[in-house]
Amino acid sequence: MLKEKIKSLAQELKEEVISNRRHLHANPELSYQEFETANFVKQKLEEIGIHKIESKATTGWTALIEGKNPTKKVIALRADMDALPIVEANEVSYKSQKEGVMHACGHDAHTASLLGAAKILHQVRDQFEGTIKLLFQPGEEVAPGGASFMIKDGALENPKPAGIIGQHVMPFIPAGKVGFRQGIYMASADELYLTVKGKGGHGAMPETLIDPVLIASHLIVAMQQVISRASSPKVPSVLSFGRVEALGATNVIPNEVKIQGTFRTLNEEWRAAAHKKMLQLAHGLVESMGGELDFEIRKGYPFLQNDPELTARATDAAKEYLGEENVVDLDIWMAAEDFAYYSQEIDGCFYRLGTRNEAKGIVSGVHTPTFDIEEDALEIGAGLMAWLAVSELEKA
Fold first, then answer.
1. Does domain 190-298 have CATH number 3.30.70.360?
2. Euclidean distance between CA atoms 43 and 39, whole angstroms
3. What is the pLDDT along the chain (396 residues), one digit of tens a residue?
4. How far apart are CA 367 and CA 375, in angstroms?
5. From residue 5, how far is each of 59, 120, 121, 229 by CA, in Å?
6. Domain residue spans of the chain
7. Is the pTM for the entire model greater than 0.85?
8. Fold for the domain defined by 2-186+302-394
């Protein structure tokens, strides 16, 4: 039985997948700089015996695994490869060897899992019909997102997949379990850059100044009205400011204050309307207080929507592979993912791989210096991806 064969191969390859993940973790590369990682991936694919490999988006790859009757149906599997500008705090044998760069979002696990799935699928290629297209992409962490460049470079063409499946680690789900959600799942993400300009001077002479610090303070509070009073409570939205820079002193008012933030939501019409409302409110408030404002909204990833039918089939396949008790329902998640670009082009299913192990202290969230994964989960990471792909090909 093909499912049991895949499970057996996943178990056999577990240590190899862990080894690959540790190599990648120790040698992280920032977005769009994944040259060593890309070379490693290509080398591993060629060692497997996969030779239909094409370069995409400079540091990305596509590769084909053809079963019997390869034109019958095509399904894609995707992994991202970039790391983050974070100093790792973990003291492990595979700790990052690059100061200030860390795989703190699990992309090392994603890449290693897909390499494992590729090896499994290559070995069972005579037992399924259709073609599996592998996408190893750069730059998921930095807008406009490596997925957008992969698409522009033809990653979803020649052949065009009927659907695409992506996997992401989830430190809030115990290792051994996975999570799925049909429909809207993750938020859009826009970056906000504001510069409030005034007239600085001595803090003891406020009557001679236009205080950009005071204006910025009012502005940050007032902007929350866009969420609390202009948006429907039925549409999740988040407006957060994470950086405020006023380079004055205790008695020195600066000439300007810089503010940076993020806006996220799950509705594209409201997203566009919110941009207009934020611009109108901000300019009006700053000008009414005597200041000037530069306000740039950099549009990021769209919201991510899982195709209901593909996701339902994938959920059923996961239950068949892992047992119903190990497949959980996901809630909406206000983080963003550039997998959303793929799901705008073809049917998509983006699911979560549980990597938490409280007994070992592996509980930190992504994007933190202490993030790590329970590596036993990589057996599921590789095997389940392979099983989901062949299961979907059978639904042609």
1. yes
2. 6
3. 999 999 999 999 999 999 999 999 999 999 999 999 999 999 999 999 999 999 999 999 999 999 999 999 999 999 999 999 999 999 999 999 999 999 999 999 999 999 999 999 999 999 999 999 999 999 999 999 999 999 999 999 999 999 999 999 999 999 999 999 999 999 999 999 999 999 999 999 999 999 999 999 999 999 999 999 999 999 999 999 999 999 999 999 999 999 999 999 999 999 999 999 999 999 999 999 999 999 999 999 999 999 999 999 999 999 999 999 999 999 999 999 999 999 999 999 999 999 999 999 999 999 999 999 999 999 999 999 999 999 999 986
4. 18
5. 33, 9, 10, 56
6. 2-186+302-394, 190-298
7. yes
8. Aminopeptidase (3.40.630)
Q: Tokens 């950086």 belong to which residue?
A: 243
